[in-house]
Amino acid sequence: MTDETTPLTASGSGSGSGSGYVALPPYQGPSYVFPGGVSPRARPSKLKQFQCCVTLTFIVIVIAALGLALWLSGSGYVGNGSSSNNSGWEEPSFFFATNESVGEMLAAVKRPIPDEPESEWALGNATVDEGAGARSVSAGIKALGDREILEEGLQPSAINTPQFRHYRSLSTNPEARKLARRGYVENQATLDIAQNYNYTKQPGRSNIGVGPVIVLPDPQVLRLDCDFNERYRRSTGVCNNKEHPRTYGASMVPYRRMVAPDYGDGIAAPRAAHGGKQLPPARQVSLNIHRSSYETDSNFTVMLAVFGQFLDHDITATSLTTAQEGESIDCCARGTLEQHPECFPVHILAEDPYYRQYNLTCMNFVRSAPAPTGRFGPRQQFNQATAFIDGSVVYGNLEQRQRSLRSYINGTLRMFLTDDGRELLPISSNPEDGCNRMLMTRQGKYCFESGDDRANENLLLTSMHLLWARHHNYLARGLHQVNPDWDDERLFQESRKILAAQLAHITYNEFLPVLLGRNLSQAKGLLPAREQLDAPDTYDPQVDPSIANCFAAAAFRFAHTLLPGLFNVSRDNSTPEAMELHKMLFNPFSLWTPHGIDHALQAAANTPVLRVDRFFSLEITQKLFEGTAEDRVPVCGLDLVSLNIQRGRDHGIPAYPVLRRHCGLPPVDTWEQMAQAVDNATLASIRQIYDSPQDVDLYTGALSEPPLDGAIFGPLLSCLVSDQFMRIKLGDSHWYERKMGPQRLTKPQLGEIYKTSLAAIICRNSDDIRRVRQHLMERHRLDGNPYVNCVDLEGYDFDFQPWSEANEAPQLHRASFSQATSLVRVFGVHNNTNATQVTVANS
Question: Which residues bind heme b (predicted)?
Fold first, then answer.
């Protein structure tokens, strides 16, 4: 297959090579310079012409470089002191860079990149007095009321349709729905006051900015009791940072903005094209740029994508707009007189090669719920998950969910015990959960409950949930053996703490080095300090670990390009057997059979991924949540790539060049500059669809970049992903490698955590897997990656002695804490620090 990427320094064309790059001949220069035969008489003249040409070219380059440097300096493009003093980061003063030099540029950044400051209120001196603010709030409340009246007459999506399953895969909890109602009122109030003051968006990426405080009816102040000497995390992530206990990394707060949003109207409308025109339909971008490809990357396995999705659900959970009681919204319903105001459907062209056979012109898409901010300003979205790698995907992000999953017996989680003695996740008997099927329930097979509502979205993800729930119980039982006097609360919290530490260790020791390359991971401090037990403490209270909007809505959706169309489900690898991806979605029923989890995990470990590039499997671009004969619904599925692009526009994620500049990467503001960042074929495809580089969606641009040396990511994804994981590590006061504070692990305990591997976790908690590759996310490594016996893996036999009470010095800590933080009511709490009463206990 002809390859789709070329090195950044290459030009011209060539044939594909086994390494995945197009092999290009060395540049020979124009034909008149030293052609194959030069007569002796012509040679001196030609030499002089050549020398003159070289000299003039050199002079032009020098003048251009000086002019560019002066322009960059004058425009403030070269990093200023305020942004680089503490971060070690500055923007480049040139833009033609090689793959190697870009990697060095990224490696030089040792601290998180400062976020772009929030823009000031665009209405300037126009005073929003109390009366004007109250009138706008009344308009916002009326808009919410009108919307709810409209919702009463709308029919939700039919159960088991592709759009209903998509809705279930983005489930929104009741607390989030309450906050979303407040966010909607704030958003509508901002639109009203902007209209009253004749606000119009200025050219470029301007927005209305952060305005005055919004006062809504029935204000309830959340009382937050923080004891920063607590040994264990709060389920909601609050009380992690002393200065920002309610916001930094907590659940139910707005996503952090690396750069200001870019809305079509500067307030809330989805991003528009440069100059205010319409962007190309997301489906057209998917068809023309992200077309199908089946080129695998034999170095890595689907386990990389499975673990990535599990981790993603631990740190991100975007709230989707729903009707009043959480019902789905159908934006493509025929015969509906009025469309829901939060609809933003994907337009399907009449000549669509797939959907035209179904006569479809609309793909359902509902906007993410607006987040309350407590101020007039542009629309924000919020994260239902905590930003910390804390195992909340196992336990839930709210106290109520966590309590419902506990057995309250020796610290264990509630599980379903099969007749043959296997532990499965608690069952979900809800027939309207988008997963349970009548045929299966008649056989006594149900879908499952877990700490995250998305657990049933695909078989491999459900298997990962089951694996880690079993692992918690393994830890709880082991701790109970060495500490029989510990009560249920202490056993549960200590097991939860160990599990979170192991999940974080796998992330930074196995997962990130594959994405970013080990060299870049090491340069950015993203590798565990296993050989540096006396290294300085990692925590920096000035770092905000909250998840960036562009990370959640675009960058960390990279794993979708990894997914192959067919999975190797052969039981013994002797007889080829494969399963299509779409048949694994909302289909966890094979876990009920003996060795069901083993077969699922082995399929993930034995199937190679596709390459991280702009190409996707047809299973992703037209068969997502495809219906079955049993469902009695249209069989055509959704296009996940279109939905991802649409989600970025919904969130007001700025265009590809904006994020490149923010990362200090060589700019791509013109087609000539973009030619240095992507290969010729990709550039040609992008230019056919987009009118300007300033229109290119972040998702499309980032996936179009060739990978850096030793990584599977290109420069922009490397920047965005590494920056977020730097923040998660540095901004977490409960980070497992901390050297200070009551949250820290002892050196013997930390040494045991360092032995953790995903392979050992799987061996220990599967039904009967006995041999695995030591590095399960990889197939081939320079140092080898053979199959080994599970019992020979380091860390297979977890040593609980470092947690024995007999070995532990007396510690003052609380194993239980106030439940006051779990209740958030609509119109209840401003999501800024000033709106929260905080009681702090220090010692």
Answer: 560
* pLDDT number for residue 629: 60
For the four alpha carbons of 409, 412, 417 and 422, in that order, the dihedral sign comes to negative
Active-site hit among 166, 244, 313, 830: 313
Nearest to 570 by CA among 602, 609, 610, 608: 602
Q: What is the largest CA-CA distance in the chain?
A: 100
How many beta carbons lie within 10 A of that of residue 19, not counting itself?
A: 8
Q: Which of 641, 705, 642 is nearest to 668 (CA)?
A: 705
Among 1.10.640.10, 3.30.1330.40, 1.20.1250.20, 3.30.465.10, name the CATH number for the domain at 392-537+569-606+736-841: 1.10.640.10
pLDDT bucket at 84, cuts 50 / 70 / 90: very low
Token code pair at residue 594: 């003996």
Which among 567, 40, 90 has a CA at the least distance from the CA of 301?
A: 567
* pLDDT at position 97: 58
User: For residues 614 and 558, what is the distance between their CA atoms, to the nearest angstrom?
Assistant: 10
Detail the residues annotated as belonging to a binding site for heme b.
Answer: 560
CA–CA distances in Å: residue 485 to residues 44, 479, 615, 743 = 96, 10, 56, 21
| DSSP secondary structure letter of residue 34 | S
Mean pLDDT score, 728-753: 93
Encode pLDDT of 88-143 as tens digits.
444 433 334 567 788 899 999 999 999 999 989 998 767 788 888 899 999 999 99
Per-domain residue ranges of the chain: 392-537+569-606+736-841
In the annotation, is 582 catalytic? no
